[in-house]
Amino acid sequence: MTERVSTCCTKINQMWVTVIMVFLCLFCSYNVRVCPSIAITQMVIQHEESLNDTIGAGQCPDYNLVDAPPPTSSNTTLNSTTPTFAEHPNIGEGGVYDWDEAIQGIILSSFFWGYVLTHIPAGMLADRFGAKRILGISTFVSGLFTLLIPAALKMGGGASVLICFRIVTGLAQGFAYPALNVMLSGWVPAKHKSTVAAIVYAGAPLGTVAAMGTSGPLLAYFAPDRIGWEIVYYLFGSMSLLWCLVWFPLCYDEPLEHPFMDEQEAKNLSAELSAHKHKKPPQVPWRHIIRSKPVWALVAASVGHGWGFLTMVNDMPKYMKSVMRFPIGHNGLLSAVPYFGMAISSIMWAKFADFLEYNNYMSRTKIHKLGNTVATIGPAICTIVAAQSGCNRVVSVSALIVGVTCMGAALPSIKINVIDLSPNYSGFIMALANGLTGVTGMLAPYVVGLLTPNQSAEEWSRVFYTISAVLTITNSIYVMWGSAEVQFWNEPGFHLKEKIEREKAEAAEAAKESVELLQMQSEIV
Q1: Which pTM value belongs to this model?
Q2: Cross-strand partners of 97
Q3: What is the pLDDT of residues 473-489, one digit of tens each?
Q4: Which of 171, 216, 282, 321 is a good FRET partner for 510, with 20 to 30 A between their CA atoms?
């Protein structure tokens, strides 16, 4: 039986199997990461007074009364119910937990409290011991703790239990990005980097699409029973666990370890990857990495992209509900649309980047800088348009869709830039870049809360201006100092060469001191 499986699977290109599985890992991770942003809108009790006071000075009119003046009494469509989602997609408004805005903000940001802590150890462990087990265990733990959230809350756990579960989920997912970069560096040759990056990192926006696009209709259908929000955690937690069942028997750290891969194909692929890759890399060259301008330019670009992306992911559903006043069914779908565009644009940009590079129209460094510029300046302009649009739903939502779509160009640019700079230490560098990016996931909800105490269109314009400024500044840093060249401290012989040069310098210094000592003795005599 094993021989039959082996014979069958040798006909399949295992590199692409690994790529698809890593894509699905990121897809499942973002399902788990994003689903509370939608679910919490149905978990929390909507007080009658807050519903009535939502439409006030500077607020947008109700979604069903776009052309009418804002209602002044409680007799609004927010309080109406009808039997089906098709007749009235606002069905299911309400909740069971009395959490104020501050508690909700803590819940949504708590994921990142754990997320930022495990990046550095994850990068070092993945570089040293391989990525397969780390990536698998990370996904299993995050899926399990998501699946258990409804049971934990049913047993009497309140917001504190949910916060703890989200912190553990963040701790687990902090291992994902560093490990998957190490995994890709052991499988993907230079000629496929852009395409693979577009496919793999499209898992983030597509996972967001799936979580938001599916959660809205599900919550709209199930929420009248007051238990409907649970379906979100059950669905996406189970998907992560199912992925683990396929991952462990099917994927391996490198081609030569794969039992189902053709031996000659594995050797050829390993030889192609070995030019800049250590079999067992030495210690991380901390001093050189910390002093590297290309590394810090990449960190700046990652932080800028993360600020825009994570602000949209965490707070877009609230903007759609509180400002644009879309009902829950429309909220989930409209919040998801921009990320579908982001995934498509990332693949299109990867193909365009490959075209430019293979025809020698631009260097890889310039291609990455162009991609990041499109992914930052495009959204910067679009968020300004959204800020100026006020309560015009068509203009605001269209601008946000176009802006987030442009962000797709960053995926085959700055994300794969980690492997460009250092295949041997890609896990550590990704940990540094993505760990600091994760800090924005903690800060962004807090900043949004400070800027939007009344959730008005005018207040949200400040959020959009802030996003625009951060994107523009970080892109300027990347354009000045970014690079796609393999750094000298990555090379296999670098550490030995540095050691020899250090020993030579020490020997020369010792010889100089000996000569000076002899001269002093001769003068004394």
Answers
A1: 0.70
A2: 44
A3: 999 999 999 998 888 88
A4: 282
Calculate the CA dihedral of residues 514, 518, 520, 525 and round it to 10 degrees. 160
d(CA 288, CA 364): 22
What's the pLDDT at 156?
A: 77
Tokens of 340: 């579908």
Q: What are phi and psi of 44, to 5 degrees?
A: -95, 140
What whole-number distance in Å separates Cα of residue 295 and Cα of residue 81? 54
Under DSSP, the state recorded for 490 is G
Who contacts 350 (Cβ-Cβ below 8 Å, separation ≥6)? 194, 195, 197, 198, 199, 411, 412
Nearest Cα residue to 418 out of 439, 436, 404:
436
State the pLDDT at residue 334.
75
CA 222 from chain center: how many Å? 29
For residue 65, which of 77, 74, 49 has the smallest C-alpha distance?
77
Dist. CA 30–CA 82, nearest whole Å: 33
Instruction: Give the three-state DSSP class for 225.
Output: helix
Find the Cα–Cα–Cα–Cα dihedral 163, 169, 171, 172, rounded to 10°. Answer: 170
The residue-averaged pLDDT of 143-150 equals 94
Dihedral-angle region of residue 292 (phi above 0 means left; psi in -120 to 50 means alpha; beta otherwise): beta
Rounded to the nearest 10 degrees, the angle between the axes of helix 14-43 and helix 176-185 is 170
Which two structure tokens, joined as six digits, stand for 337? 């649309």
> In the predicted model, is pLDDT for residue 183 greater than 50?
yes
